[in-house]
Design brief:
Number of helices: 5
Order of helices and strands: HHHHH
Number of strands: 0
Helix content: over 70%
Shape: elongated
Distance between the termini: 119 Å
Length: about 100
């Protein structure tokens, strides 16, 4: 009975070693390294997206608590039809003559 236990333990250890060596050999192949790098890139991209989403959620929550406007709400933007009817004098707040025109006068 003692020998059969040691035989089974040896078979188990051998099978474990074969599986580990096969996995290590697969990792060191070109395809295995490509898979590992691809998985790392996907993981970094997912992490970056999660951080960006968390940052946006935190900023939105902070803006709501502080009573500030959200990103999509533009309080200071003029209506589009008002911009079409404005002249350069209205935009600059004065006369639209340039320095060259002043020198010619």
């Amino acid at each position: 009975m003692g020998r059969s236990i040691w035989f089974a333990a040896g078979v188990g250890a051998g099978a474990y070693a074969v599986v580990r060596v096969r996995r290590a050999a697969e990792i060191l192949t070109v395809d295995g390294l490509r898979d590992r790098v691809g998985a790392a890139v996907v993981g970094v991209r997912m992490f970056r997206d999660e951080v960006a989403q968390g940052r946006a959620d935190a900023e939105t929550g902070l803006r709501e608590r502080m009573g500030l406007a959200l990103h999509d709400h533009r309080e200071l933007a003029a209506p589009a039809d008002d911009l079409a009817s404005t002249t350069p004098d209205q935009i600059t707040g004065g006369d639209s003559t340039t320095e060259q025109e002043v020198g010619r006068s």
